[in-house]
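Fig. S4 source data, part A: sequence.
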Amino acid sequence: MDGDNGILLPINRIAEKLNLPDGDLEFYGRYTAKIRLGRLPGLNAPTRGKLILVTAITPTSHGEGKTVVSIGLAQAIEKLGKRSIVTLREPSLGPVFGVKGGASGGGRSQVVPGEKINLHFNGDNHAVSAAHNLLAAMIDSHLHHGNELKIDVDNIFWPRTLDMNDRALRHVIVGLGGKANGVPRETGFVITAASEIMAVLALANAREDCGRRLSDITIGFNLDGQIVRTGDLNVTGAMMVLLNEAIMPNLVQTTEQTAALIHAGPFANIAHGTSSVIAQKMALELAEYVVNETGFGADLGAEKFMDIVMPASGLKPSAAVLVATVRGIKAQARIEERGPEALKSGLENLAKHVENLKKFLLPTVVAINRFAEDSDEEIRTIMGFSADLGVESSVAEVFDKGGAGGLELAAKVMAAAEKANLQAVRSLYPPGLGIKEKIELVAGEIYGADSVYFESGARKKLEKFSALGFSSLPVCMAKTQSSLSDNPKLPGAPKNWTLTVTDANLASGAGFIVVVAGNMMLMPGLSKTPQAARMNVDRNGSITGLS
């Protein structure tokens, strides 16, 4: 609520700035609303605004400030006289109560009201969880009532979900306690951000497309080895009922009253990591510049946007912003170089992410998210290094100063976007690659791996998916965010290493194949002292410890 005028505006006032009448809104209280899908431009409508992709170097455990920079950049663009909207993912209760706490920005670059956004925000994540678990319940009910589809109990892929870090639910057995309680079988839970329903919600371009994608979800195989889909269980309609309001993007505001669309929350380390296609298309219709945050480093969020989201949606970024911090660069130094040489050593990580963005032919600006302890010499070192890489850079002080602290960054980003050749912007994959070839391409070109090792179970699954006709689908890598490699303890830009593929899952509704690398978990766990241990509510109902 610390905007330029210290005022949190009623949400219809924010809508008025976008020329959105009340009839286009579904109000959720005084300060949040959903935008009805009637406002969505037609599938073949020309894009009016320019899309800016915000990504980062390999992050530390506390992040490098992508959300803060994204919000601050949108505010700065507004200060320069252009209409902007920031599009963000919805926070998950897992990280909120886990390591990071709230995910609504900070200082003078926040989206508000933060407590609502970080917790039960208009019920979207709950709706995704409910739709996911309804499908799980329908599968078990079908098994109990005779299994007309002859579903192979040992080949059911669909887990259950929960929007919370709970490692004890990774592997469970259901159906115990006798025949009346169903058919005993092994299953597990994934966090809601890893649910295919979340990916479907984020990638759908309309209600009809959402329903089609839900029907196409592969839940397992039958005894003849054929695919069984959601549509075979006649549950798509009920799932759409649960998602009926969740499919509409959420309109809120920043601390400087810039419009923000927050919608869908797939993680970038286990899913595709960006806000919904619907939100981005609406924003591009309503604003001149749309600042869209992607999750974690450019090896994850940005790569997945370019190789999954862009081909599926037609959304093409005009420029990329690569967020870096002095602290984050030093963290990428080799262990033996943690002293004064840490910054110089860690710059190889920045260089690799810049190199990766250039492979998509994306004009790139490095945003140095400055902290009080950063020296002028350190900042100059990063800026000089960026110049040597052939990219612009700018210091962002948007946490302390809001949009005013990002004016130079905004000017450079807008200039880069204006010069962009959208026809040249491309995905990494050339046409005709098989699944294994795509994995090897991402591993080699984006991560810097020398080779890829496929464990037996993963290899058999990938061969099965190819035989079933899914070889054209993109791959969605589930990989640690803490390193360019599959080992979270390898800093910098590792060389002479092999990516290990341990598992694979078919997400036919979302339209990609999830490839698990290393020990990546689709259900995280809580740390020894999670953020939840520091939270409370005072006698006035005010929440403390959320961020």
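Fig. S4 source data, part B ends here. The first helix runs from residue 11 to 17.
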